[in-house]
Amino acid sequence: MAEKVALSEDRARYLDGLVRRGRTAAAVFTQYTQADVDRIVKAMVLAGLAKAQYLAHLAIEETRLGVLEDKTIKNMVATEFVYDYVRDKPSVGVIREFPERGLTEVAEPIGLLFSVTPITNPTSTVLFKCIMAIKTRNAVIFGPHPKAWRCSLAAMRIMYEAAVEHGAPEGVFSCVEEPTIADNVYLMHHKDIRLIDATGGPGAVNAAYSSGKPALGVGAGNTPVYLEKTARLDMAVVDIITSKTFDNGTICASEQTVVIDDEIYDAVLRKFAELGAHICNAKETVVLGQMVIDPETGSMRPMAVGQKATDIARACGLKVKPETKLLIAPIEGVGRQHPLSVEKLFPVLAVYRAKSVDEALRVCVDVNHAGGLGHTAVIFSRNDAIIGKFSELMNAGRVIVNSPGSIGALGGVYNDMVPTFSFGCGTGGGNSTTDNVNLYHYLNIKRVARRTQAHMWFRVPNQIYFNFNAVENLRHMPSRSTVIVTNPHLEQMGHVDLVRRSLAPQTPVRVLAIPDAEPELAVILEGVQALRLQQADQIIALGGGSVIDAAKIMKLKYGSPDADLMELAAPFLDVRKRVMRYPVPNGQLVRLIAVATTSGTGSEVTPFAVMIDKARGRKITLADYSLTPDVAIVDPQFVMSMPKGLTADTGIDCLTHALEAGVSIYASPYTDSNAMQAIRMVFKYLPIAYEQPRDEEARSMMHNAACIAALAFSNASVGVNHALAHAFGAKFGVGHGRANALMLPHVLAYNASVPTKFMPSPNQRAYVAHKKYAMVADLLGLGGDTVAEKVKNLVAATERLLDRLEIPRSIAELGIPEAEFERAIPDLAKIAFDDPSWRSNPRMPMVGELVELLWSAYRGRGAGISERVAEKEWSCV
Amino acid sequence: MVVRMTTNSVRIEDAVQKINGGEQEVMLDFSAVARIDGHVIRALEELAGLAEERSVKVVLHSVNVDIYRVLKQLKLTERFTF
What we know:
The structure holds two protein chains of two kinds.
Chain A (H helix, E strand, L loop, with lengths): L8 H21 L4 H17 L1 H12 L4 H19 L6 E6 L4 E7 L2 E5 L5 H14 L3 E5 L5 H17 L7 E3 L5 H8 L6 E5 L2 H9 L4 E4 L4 E5 L5 H13 L9 E7 H13 L2 E3 L2 H11 L16 H8 L9 E5 L17 E7 L2 H13 L4 E7 L3 H10 L2 E6 L3 H6 L32 E7 L13 E4 L15 E5 L1 H5 L2 H8 L6 E5 L7 H14 L3 E6 L1 H15 L5 H4 L22 E6 L11 E6 L4 E6 L7 E4 L9 H20 L5 H23 L4 H21 L3 H13 L3 H17 L16 H11 L7 H18 L13 H17 L12 H13 L5 H7 L6
Helix pairs in contact in A: 2-4, 2-5, 2-6, 3-4, 3-6, 4-5, 5-6, 11-12, 18-19, 21-22, 21-23, 21-25, 22-23, 24-25, 24-28, 25-27, 25-29, 25-30, 26-27, 27-30, 28-29
Chain B lengths: L11 H9 L4 E5 L8 H17 L2 E5 L3 H9 L9
Parallel strand pairs in B: 1-2
């Protein structure tokens, strides 16, 4: 944490004045348009370009660092290249739009920035930051390096005058004159400074981050270079010399230690020497290290920073040719024992001879970690694998490939990186970004997110055959080997023979009779084995939900033997975003034909399958459209002999599917049409099928209704009724259809009342469950003038239907003692809440509400219903 | 006081005179002002100071929302009535 340093009152007043002006300018600036900003930026850039050499002179004169020509180039890059990057980029108002995603990005200025600038690149950094600030409608107070404040101030003034002349707010830039560390600390903590942008040494960067303000702090590096044997050596050597001698090595991205493969080491050093480098011998290396690196701190001495190679050599007592550009010092390791392995912002370059790629990479990692984390790394190579490995290993915001480090890192010259004078070093360097700092870091970018509609679907089997004798369509489905999965009871009833007779002649068939219960894992695996033995290309699932579900899972395991059923059963909230993806079959392709022998589950067209894992004592529900049978056969001749009780229970299951799909948050016009039709058919034909089991029309219509309702809930899912029925049915051994029936009137009333919690649902524009129920009432001709009346009538009609089917109307009537039920209720509510079925329910059930619903169902016959329906006058019309 | 504005029909100096003349409520019409600059802000700051000293209510009328946000950022909205 930076300590606050006492300031004189006058000094504080002076700094407060700068802040006040800047703050006002920033506020005024918010009114400017993109055109205003772009006009001002262009004028500033032209002014900066015109004064590039003048400012370079000033910088050299004041700092005594660097090279005039190079500083001039830097000033030109900071204006022209930066302008080239920002000129066409929107920075006011809407800056980016993604219409297909409903997203718009809107730029918001930050306000007043305090910007610390370095001694090494004083004028170019100020030019760059001024352009960024105006482009983004921010005001800046510059805190220049104390030994570079005059040239920094001059650069700022050139920018400021051009800016104000072209309409920028007065006071938009200011610069602390005769700055001190105390000034920086004061401003970094000033309440009206919105962002600190610190480019400089670790001290300034740490102080910025310690201030508690948002900060961009970018600082020191120690660039490793790997010169790998496949590199173009001539290019590499020229690039390294160009970069390391640029402005006498003052750019912090410049090369510090070059690690050279053994095979090319001597040739590389010869080339360096030919082009004006002095290769130090061992003794010279030691002397150089002692002179330019402070042994106490292990850091470079200021006397060497930004100086010419010949001047450094002279200071160290080394004899070098007058044209020497660069001093090259061979080192044998990295760390305090090898002083030249650290950052050297002057034309002294360490080199290391590596015996192998591994050794070279290891030394580069060492250099990277010796003060260069997050900054820059360079590689010269034509081996993509080694470039890739190097990029993985380096903790660097910039990995520069086959080009000079310093100029490469600046961006826009040797590569397509964003031009900058501020290198983000990521968390490795204690920074908040690894980016080349640019205009987007000077903006608060607001995301305007418009409501989108989730993609919906309506997925059904490829073919559905229905009506009497629909099974004969099997004849047109050729197969080399068919396995009929069924249960012994259906086999005895002759249904299997009927199917056999309907197959194409000479179709090889094997019958696999499995127990008539929810399938167990062991049964499934035996079935898969049978499919393999038969090399089946067709499975015919002949039965109710259990048999068809078993066949679906067999098909899955047959096509994808490695599929882990437990993993695939992982819970999910949205099928499109689920963690576990179902496998694409990599084994035998097989057609699954489902022939339904009950009129309720609709499993012949659904993407769901339930099985039991006895070993683990759990029920596994699988859900994926890949489970949907390829062909469904809805032939009523298979249900003509269904017992009365089963007819009633499965019929109510079908009704529950349709009613829940109808009000589901995934309901769509596609599912609604099916749901409504199924409801209409159930109310009309279920009592007839129950009371006159041989009535062919009623049986046929109920068989179709079950399938049609399943088409709806396969795509819209079910709701809280199913969640409760699953929990309660499993606990007390009550069949699924009957458990649904016991809950149904209560859930209708519940969904029709004002939700305690709405379900988040982008596809629903209002809560419509009660209106949907009213629509059902209209469809059934139940009467009623208001939505509330219609809902009441629907609930009453449902109760009448249940009575007519002789279904017990309360859980108590099943003989379950109240005390036992009371004990079970907390667990039942929790289990129901864990059940995925309710996730598509129109209202989100609270656990307490589930308890209430269970009690209502226990007591039965209207308990709690009338109150709920009465409540729902809330938005009836 | 010289008031220089980008688009200005507001006469802040008139408001100052009215306050000095003893009026208890002064209204400034911003309906023709599209944008304000630093000079207007300084003038408004001074006007606010004077009004507070004399307990005079100053109403800024028809201030567009961009200008309102500038005043908000500078904490000037709490010193005027809108």
